[in-house]
Amino acid sequence: xxxxxxxxxxxxxxxxxxxxxxxxxxxxxxxxxxxxxxxxxxxxxxxxxxxxxxxxxxxxxxxxxxxxxxxxxxxxxxxxxxxxxxxxxxxxxxxxxxxxxxxxxxxxxxxxxxxxxxxxxxxxxxxxxxxxxxxxxxxxxxxxxxxxxxxxxxxxxxxxxxxxxxx
Length: 167
Fold this sequence. Notes:
By secondary structure, this protein is of the alpha+beta class. Helix content is 25%, strand content 42%.
């Protein structure tokens, strides 16, 4: 019953609770940072975040998607997706979509571009995840990727598992 209610009004309350938690600790360091010229706040922030090694989330037909996962101090996860085009032609109209199980709250931020130039990973996209099971159930993602290369539309599907424990 808790899980079902969490999708509606409970989800809003969870967000408010997280905001309250974030406001409390971050107010003190940022106030201290302002007093001391901003030095203490940046030193305190990275200590809570733990980066995992990069992982290849998808690789097919010249497209490689690499995830750079990071566990935040508040228990959430931030995943920086980097998209690389290994073809000689650009990939245009690029769209990256992600679906997760109901126990994960996902925020997909806009990509830095819709054109993947050849032979470079110039486009990134940030995914923010909150696993309501506190990592008891592992993070899983289904991917849908679309783009146009040499005038031909391409649609790809994929699944990503194998995130580090606790994500």
